[in-house]
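User: Quick one: structure for sequence A, then sequence B.

Assistant: Sequence A:
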Amino acid sequence: MSLFITCPVADVQRATAFYTALGWTLDAEMSDHGVSCFAIAPEQYVMLGSREVYASVGGTEDLVGGPHTPSKVTVSFDLPSRAAVDEIVERAGAAGGRVGDTDDYPFMYQRQFDDPDGYHYSPFWMKPDADPTA
C-alpha cells in the first residue's frame, strides 16, 4: 500500500525549501509549480499543494483552512537512532520550523516540530530492549 499525506500550503516554494532542508527527497515526476511531492520512505509521500490546487481536488474547498489553522493530525515516524531524531528536528528549526517538546520515556525518545504552515511532526526512536509498559 502506498501512503500519501497531502497538505495545503501558503507558498509551495517555501514549503519545498523547508522539506528539502529536512533532507527529504523531492520526486520531480510527481511535482510541478503547484505541488511538491516528497518521498519520505518507500511508497510513502508528503504532497505539498498550493491552497488553490488542494481546494480544486475532490471538493475539499471547506477543508483548506488558513495559515494559522492548527494541524489536525500529528505525523509520527520512527528513525534509527536518538541522534537521527535530534538531527531532523534541528534541521527543521534551522529551516524556519517551530521546535516543540522533547519526551524521553524509558522505551522511546520523541521530539516535535511544526513546519511553516503549522503541520505537526513527531519523529521518534524506540529504545532497543526497553519494556514498552515502563
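Sequence B:
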Amino acid sequence: MTDPSEPVEEPANLRFLRRLVTVLTAVMIGGLLVIVSLIVIRFSSDRAPAPIPLPDHITLPDGSRAEAFTVTADWYAVITGDDRVLIYDRTSGALRQTIDLVTPE
C-alpha cells in the first residue's frame, strides 16, 4: 500500500494534456484581447468621413412630393409619393433619369 503523503508521479500523457490545456487557455485569452483592442481602435478613431454637400434646392415635377432622398458622389435620387425615382446629376442639377416603380397588385 502506498503512503498518501508521498507525491505520485503523473503519467506523461496527463502532463502533456495539462500543458496543452494551459497553452490553449493562454492563446484564447490573447486572441480575445486582440479582438477587443481592434474593436476599440476601430470605433474610437477620430476619422469621420467627409460629409457630401447636399444641393441647396431640388425642383420636382408638378404634383410630386418627396418621400425619400439618397446621394452619391455623381448623382442624387428623390423617391416621390407617386412611385417614381428621379435621378439628378450632382454637378448640374439636371434631371438625368426617371424610373417608374411597379407596385405589386
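DSSP finds one helix and four strands in the chain. The mean pLDDT is 87.

User: Thanks, that's what I needed.
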